[in-house]
Amino acid sequence: MDKFVVNIIHRPEMVPEYAEKVTGHGKAEDIGRKELLTENLDIFKTQQECAHKNGLKTTIEMTYASLFNEEAIALAKEHHEKYGDEIALTLLGLPCEEFREKYKTKDFCIWMFSMEDKKAIVQDVFEKFHECFGFYPESTGSYYMDAELTNYIKETYPSVKCAVATCWEEGPKAYHTCNNSWYTFMDGGPWAPWIPSKQNTHAPAANEAEDSGIVAIPHLSRDLIACYDGNGSNFGTHPQNVLRGMIYDTETWEYPYLYNLIDQYRYQAKFNNGYSYNMMFVGPGWMNKMGRWEAPYDLLLKSYEDGCAYYGKLKKEGKLIDMTMSEFADYYRQKKSYTEPECALWRDILYGSKKQVFWYCDPYMRAGVNMDQGGAIVDLRPYVAKLNWPVGIGTPHIQDASYPFLIQEKYRAGYFTHYAGEGTIRSAKICHNGEEVDLCLCRTKAHFSEENLSEEEIASKQSADAAMKNETAGIGCSGENAPKNRILTLDPVDIEFSDLTVKLQTVMTFIEGTGSIRIDRKVLEITPADGVDASEMDAADITINEYMVGCYGTTEYTEDMSSLTLSLTKGGEKTEIPYEYKCREASLEGADRSACVVPPIETVVSMTCEGRDKAGYIKEGYAFSPMFTIGYTGKLCEKEVFTTWLNLEKAN
């Protein structure tokens, strides 16, 4: 039976975000106000009760402020003994009188401090926890934990095995929906649990040498379409997210979307060897007695009670296993191998659009495929670079913890663009007699399957492992954890030209442990238009143009592209275009590779090809459209296949 695991995490956040202003009723700020502390401890008790009465254990992530509150400490000890709750420690909830007095700041995001202050804060908080409980925690977390912070914690407090480490797609979209005031950027990470690398928290470890020593979980389980397309804070399995998004009946106070979202996460077990995951990470600020998000307290309370009741119902039916964070870390390490990807075939459950998106994440890449755009790749993050990206005061990235993209349709246009220029996307154009159709215009649906790697793919993977001196890549190479291809078979689409219709099918193969995606385009049949002689169709040539338009960055704003180099190679022949915004192009018949080196993110992205009359090409771009394009053109007849690979490598 499929295993659906849930983590329910509560924190006695004595001075939660936003709450001081709400409870203060216009008074001068006072984060030590007694009614503020009392109310939020009462809400924490209520949240704990909601879980326990439904037979669910929790992870209690103590905040720094709560470690100065004897009642909060006593409650944690009592619930650990009575219900099996884990007593953990969060790096959220730092603000309190003691913290502000010592650090003389209103900053509260641990990853934004200088490394010197991060170390001092970690020591303060962890030692205070040990003083209160007599042991060090096994779990910790924040909205985001940068790699330097994680490595320091694991080295100094080796008991830690699990951490809340990022918030999925909490970047410019969230910033804009918070009136340009939410200065936390952390797009580009996994949406489900992973083992973060020592080099970069977002990028999963490829082997034991890269393993940071912890299992990371996301801050909330998000809707993988609605969150990507819009503000993620409205679309998650935290019940108050659903209320903030106004996704409920204002008369009956019912919210079927919440249950549908939980169920869709359950469904992902079909794509992940029978395992799926969900989490709910809740602080008391969301259930303020004054109400939140245009919702009264009674509705806030009801939504949380109902959410816990649904998890409890699934547990009673044998469809859910509740775990603490440390229990889950042990389970995950035993369940998953390093290179095994996380896959999600996600459908729209909010707007009725029937949109379908596939997400893929492994130590080499994160990719998003949009079936509403013919299976185009609309998001691509080159994890293979394991980019060293220090965050916080004193670094080049004080607020921006995002993992850079090569393709991002929301920030860099995608297929549908302004009157000039191009947007980032990986797609194909089908051409015939001067007519052209981009597959981005051909909506389709995908079907998921798996197969073992071919001998050729295994040899390629072993060669790559050897090049990386990846002695531990063989972990989990037998049984259910044996390396496999994940395959998306798209429904055929009909492409109509003036004199014929082409029925084309796309198959995308994600080759585990290689950083490569194989894309096969097959012409199933060619049908003449009315009045056209069918005999003329036997030799009808269709031209295909497989392309990737890319750039790099973390926001909507362009970066300096002048360090990039485009290239075409064939044997010993090589053509290069250093990026100078001059709109230059080059092509090479029979090219072995079309590529671009992107030094600022230490990445080489390339395409290779098997197909009739293939020719590789590169395009430079210009100042108004600061992109690069790599691709191949070729010919297709009925029953023929044109195959390309999209490959990611670390530069140098």
Q: Can you walk through the features of this model?
A:
With 652 residues, the protein is an alpha+beta fold. 23% of the residues lie in helices and 29% in strands. It is built from 13 helices and 29 strands. The strands form five sheets. Strands 16, 17, 18, 19, 20, 22, 23, 25, 26 and 29 form a ten-stranded antiparallel sheet that branches. A six-stranded antiparallel sheet has the order 15-14-21-28-27-24, with no helix packed on it. It is globular. Mean pLDDT is 92; it is low at 471-478.
List keywords for this structure.
alpha+beta; 10-stranded antiparallel β-sheet; 29 strands
Structural class: alpha+beta
The helix count comes to 13
Write down the oligomeric state.
single chain
Helix % is: 10-25%
Mean of residue pLDDT values:
92
Largest sheet: 10 strands, antiparallel
Rg estimate, integer Å: 26 Å
Please give the number of β-strands: 29
- Determine the strand fraction and express it as a percent band: 25-35%
Uncertain spans:
471-478
Distance between the termini: 45 Å
> Which shape, going by the Cα principal axes?
globular
